[in-house]
Write a structure and sequence with these properties.
single chain, mainly alpha, 2 domains, 13 helices
Length: 308
């Protein structure tokens, strides 16, 4: 029993140390915005898999992660696997695609080793004969779980940042509509409204509009590309829709106002749904507390009756 507990503690410490060593440090939102801008410039968007990896950080482990990520990215590109969902999640969180693939490879390799060693050691310590191939199955299963762990982490963080971006986008559209109501052209209203806020969503919009102006592109097309890149469908659809009616300022203003109202209604519905879930959880907790109190009161009486 003591040996099994010690083995489990050692394996847990190994897995925790591996995750702690490979996981990237938490950075400020503005730093993530700078990385997002550097990783997804115009030339990198045209050739996403041909982007040269940045300097490796973290010593030999960072170098190994960079090489593994480059190798896996090349293999995926040759097979036509775009991994669009992961790219969008990483784009909105400001992480690099190849670095994330390198983490996946290293975590899978570590999971395979830990699974094989854990199954073998536990079998030897417990004195149980496992079927032939059981350690290999355990290692492969643990490696698969560790391989998709960065995807779940990126998806959870990206969902939080997209919700924050959507809230800021609704307010931004209202500001643009107000600027246009004051006889401002869309080319003037878009950057002017973006300069009002200081959060990272508006900073990202400002940077996108600035690059579109310098490149001579339509700002609505640039915003639609931004929505596609970070996985915000509302911004992508809005940019594509406004690009069709951009010649009519009144229609543009009414479209912006309607889309802002729609986004607020969706946000309100989401908040109401979350509140309903929280209320239901509280009711379940109250029921469980009541059942526990009934058991606490009734247990002495049941024991007294059973003792006769």
């Amino acid at each position: 029993m003591i040996a099994a507990i010690g083995i489990g503690a050692v394996l847990g410490a190994v897995v925790f140390g591996m995750l702690l060593r490979i996981a990237p440090p938490t950075t400020a939102p503005l730093v993530q915005l700078a990385r997002l801008d550097a990783l997804h410039a115009a030339d990198a968007a045209a050739h996403p898999a041909a982007t040269a990896p940045g300097p490796a950080r973290g010593g030999w482990l960072g170098s190994a992660r960079s090489r593994a990520g480059t190798w896996l990215a090349t293999r995926l590109q040759r097979r036509g696997i775009a991994y669009t969902s992961l790219r969008q999640d990483l784009a909105v969180t400001g992480r690099g695609y190849e670095q994330a693939l390198g983490r996946k490879v290293l975590l899978a390799g570590g999971g395979l080793v830990v699974g094989l060693a854990g199954a073998t050691v536990i079998s030897s310590a417990a004195g149980v004969t496992l079927p032939v191939g059981a350690p290999a199955v355990a290692g492969v299963g643990f490696a698969a779980v560790m391989f998709f762990l960065p995807d779940l982490e990126a998806r959870r963080e990206a969902a939080t940042r997209r919700a924050e971006f959507r809230r800021a986008l609704g307010a931004y559209l209202d500001l643009v509509a107000l600027e246009m109501a004051g006889s401002a052209a869309p080319a003037e209203a878009l950057p002017s409204a973006a300069r009002i806020g200081t959060g990272w969503p508006l900073a990202l919009i400002r940077d996108t509009l600035y690059r579109a102006t310098r490149a001579g592109r339509s700002p609505w097309t640039a915003l639609a590309d931004l929505g596609q890149r970070i996985g915000v469908g509302e911004l992508r659809d809005l940019g594509q829709l406004i690009a069709l009616v951009s010649h009519d300022g009144a229609r543009v203003r009414s479209t912006l106002t309607a889309r802002a109202q729609t986004m607020r209604r969706h946000e309100l519905a989401d908040l109401q749904g979350k509140a309903g879930k929280a209320d239901q959880s509280m009711r379940i907790a109250q029921i469980l507390i009541g059942l526990g109190f009934i058991v606490f009161l009734g247990y002495p009486a049941v024991v007294a009756v059973m003792s006769f």
